[in-house]
Write a structure and sequence with these properties.
With about 550 residues, the chain is mainly beta. Helix content is about 10%, strand content about 35%. It folds into 3 domains: about 140 residues, Sandwich (Immunoglobulin-like); about 180 residues, Immunoglobulin-like (Sandwich), CATH 2.60.40.420; about 190 residues, Sandwich (Immunoglobulin-like), CATH 2.60.40. The protein binds 2-acetamido-2-deoxy-beta-D-glucopyranose (NAG) (12 copies).
């Protein structure tokens, strides 16, 4: 009998005896035909499922995922939002922490879930494969600990996505060659279904509920480029957690969720028995082309045969209003309502003293391009640096001290100050480079992410790997280093791993660099990551083995 089987048996016979487990998963990356999408074009999936399998575990569990690549693309998987304490080799972004798993090869991701509970997501982290290679991660609290809210009757996973009729790799390759924005998606999906869609008989997803019960919805935005609104007709939702950190509960009729973000909300099935529309629709408050389609599914009450139900409630679907596409005030109200729980059990530990104070401008630019028809290509940048991916993994170059792969001179502030949210400067070219910023172990960091209006202002959901950060402030226009810090929330700011920086505005975050390794920071709109709106931090080792990055695993893929 293996140790795992013994532990499983023990946990079954004596639940209180075993606190943490080793959870094994096999991810076979394969080409799959799916009827959900009303298309005969095969897509890349994990184990033939779209969305892929949910990874269930408890806080403190050790998770082992063996990924085998059976498709013709290079591939890696990122465990989005998992802290990866001292397991930086398992984080997954291609050419940052590992070389890709090449066709026919495999790699074992091995990490432990420390200090987190809630919903996260996993997704491919190379090119645009995450469009179909993604799924939810559910981290249950430790066995002895209840949720800080009433236990729901059932839990439901709701994964929002974005679907192209064309092959997504062809879409991004065509855009890269032209230096132009990629074709927008054809539909948004709810648990893989586009919902009623022209020429598609797919019925869509149905959320079944029983009258009088409560449900925990684990909502994941796995879309590539679209920030989304989520609504259920006739029902409010109570938000209780974001990015696997508990929040103060608040009630809302609209959830706002950016790519890479997750939100747990409680649904009370307290309305008359019937069918209610669930809608997702995009948010865009900038003059930029996007997929403006609305997708829907249905909330359906189980019929109660003991009481007479008016038959029209079964045939009529109750509708809801869809937020305007540019409903900035709805997004602001939602984001301002998010506060960390800050209880005795789950305290908020925002750094009060800042060792590194960074100002990062984030936006786009235009560089010359010999091979592009227009002679130019769109680029993304942070502090005017468009990040160039290296040919081997940054973490390997760091660990083995290989020179010439990256430099550690990433600018602490924009090289030239200008009115970031005003008229574009005359010269909108950027520099390129593989430049990183170095942090000593356990130093505290503040980053003001300042959106620019170069070419067009736009909201940028920014994701930091390896850490949760606190969102201590945000505003419109240019950050004012004298006035704005007076209003920072250092008491109960929301703790998360991805934050939408408002269009033509700024967001300030703080975190403690207590995790040695190389950690990617990038806009989670895949189009902007492709364009170079990314950089990485090096966090040096502290003292002794418990504060150092261990050696790479033996099966780490090679370039
Ligand atoms: C998908 O369906 C097409 C058309 O029916 C078929 O030719 C192809 O072999 C299928 N691919 C897979 C991976 O099942
Ligand atoms: C996972 O990592 C831990 C800690 O390094 C190690 O003890 C364990 O053997 C690894 N498990 C697998 C399956 O590689
Ligand atoms: C992108 O859209 C254009 C215009 O509709 C179309 O001609 C082209 O084939 C599309 N590209 C891909 C990869 O589908
Ligand atoms: C739906 O199918 C009809 C008939 O095949 C076709 O004429 C029409 O263009 C299709 N519409 C869409 C949106 O694909
Ligand atoms: C939802 O909440 C709003 C205010 O937050 C309230 O006006 C409305 O009545 C609530 N609706 C339901 C169905 O509870
Ligand atoms: C969505 O965009 C298309 C193409 O730009 C446009 O024709 C259509 O009117 C838009 N629909 C909505 C609801 O804004
Ligand atoms: C920056 O540009 C904005 C928008 O044009 C303008 O309202 C603002 O006054 C400018 N700020 C400064 C300091 O020039
Ligand atoms: C960005 O870098 C390019 C290339 O060095 C330079 O021409 C441009 O002026 C810089 N822009 C800003 C705003 O720093
Ligand atoms: C970096 O910039 C130089 C000069 O602008 C350009 O020639 C080169 O192609 C750029 N490299 C990449 C990878 O964009
Ligand atoms: C990290 O810094 C904080 C604040 O100074 C301190 O309380 C904590 O003990 C430090 N942790 C380590 C592992 O050094
Ligand atoms: C590592 O060990 C040292 C000495 O035992 C201890 O002071 C420190 O807090 C430990 N750091 C962490 C992150 O546990
Ligand atoms: C896959 O990755 C390897 C290693 O980096 C690289 O040499 C190869 O060109 C990549 N293949 C494709 C199709 O991108």
């Amino acid at each position: 009998m293996t140790i795992l089987k013994l532990l499983l048996l023990l946990s079954f016979l004596f639940p209180a005896m075993v606190d943490c487990l080793v959870r094994h998963y096999n991810f076979r990356v394969v080409l799959t035909n799916t009827t959900k999408l009303c298309s005969t074009k095969p897509i890349v999936t994990v184990n033939g499922h779209f969305p892929g399998p949910t990874l269930y575990a408890r806080e403190d569990d050790n998770v082992i995922v063996r990924v085998t690549n059976h498709v013709a693309y290079n591939l890696t998987i990122h465990w989005h939002g998992i802290r990866q304490l001292q397991t930086g080799w398992a984080d997954g972004p291609a050419y940052v922490t590992q070389c890709p798993i090449q066709p026919g090869k495999n790699f074992v991701y091995n990490f432990t879930l420390t200090g987190q509970r809630g919903t996260l997501l996993w997704h491919a982290h190379i090119s645009w494969l995450r469009a179909t290679v993604h799924g939810a991660i559910v981290i249950l609290p430790k066995k002895s600990l209840p949720y800080p809210f009433p236990k729901p009757h059932r839990e439901k996973i709701i994964i929002l996505g974005e679907w192209w009729k064309a092959d997504v790799e062809a879409v991004v390759n065509q855009a890269t060659q032209a230096g132009m924005p990629p074709n927008v998606s054809d539909a948004h999906t709810i648990n893989g279904f586009p919902g009623p869609f022209p020429n598609c008989s797919s019925q869509g997803y149905t959320l079944h509920v029983k009258s009088g019960k409560t449900y925990l919805l684990r909502i994941v935005n796995a879309a590539l480029n679209d920030e989304l609104f989520f609504k259920i007709a006739g029902h409010n939702l109570t938000v209780v957690e974001a990015d696997a950190a508990y929040t103060k509960p608040f009630e809302t009729d609209t959830i706002f969720v950016s790519p890479g973000q997750t939100t747990n909300a409680i649904l009370k099935a307290n309305q008359p028995i019937g069918k209610y529309l669930i809608v997702i629709s995009p948010f865009m408050d900038a003059p930029i082309g996007f997929d403006n389609s609305t997708s829907s599914s249905t909330l359906r009450y189980k019929l109660d045969y003991n009481t007479t139900t008016p038959s029209n409630l079964e045939t009529t679907t109750i509708l809801t209003t869809i937020p305007p596409q540019n409903a900035t005030p709805i997004t602001k109200t939602f984001m301002d309502s998010l506060k960390s729980l800050n209880s005795i059990q789950y305290p908020t530990k925002v750094p009060l003293i800042v060792d590194h104070s960074l100002l990062f401008t984030i936006g786009v630019g235009l560089n010359p391009c010999d091979t592009c028809a227009s002679g130019f290509k769109l680029v993304g940048n942070i502090n005017n640096v468009s990040f160039v991916m290296p040919s081997i993994a940054l973490l390997e170059a760091h660990y083995h001290n290989i020179k010439g792969i990256f430099t550690d001179d990433f600018p602490v502030k924009p090289p030239v100050a200008f009115n970031y949210t005003g008229t574009s400067p005359a010269n909108i070219q950027t520099m390129n480079g593989t430049r990183l910023y170095r942090l000593s172990y356990n130093s505290s960091v503040q980053i003001v992410l300042q959106g620019t209006a170069v070419i067009a202002p736009e909201s940028h959901p920014t994701h930091l790997h390896g850490f949760n950060f606190y969102v201590i402030g945000s505003g419109l226009g240019n950050f004012d280093p004298v006035e704005d810090p007076k209003w920072f929330n250092l008491v109960d700011p929301v703790e998360r791993n991805t934050i939408g920086v408002p269009t033509a505005g700024w967001t300030a975050i703080r975190f403690r660099a207590d995790n040695p390794g190389i950690w990617f920071l990038h806009c989670h709109l895949e189009v902007h990551t492709t364009w170079g709106l990314k950089m990485a931090f090096i966090v040096d080792n502290g003292f002794g083995p418990n504060e150092s990055l261990p050696p790479p695993p033996n099966d780490l893929p090679q370039c």
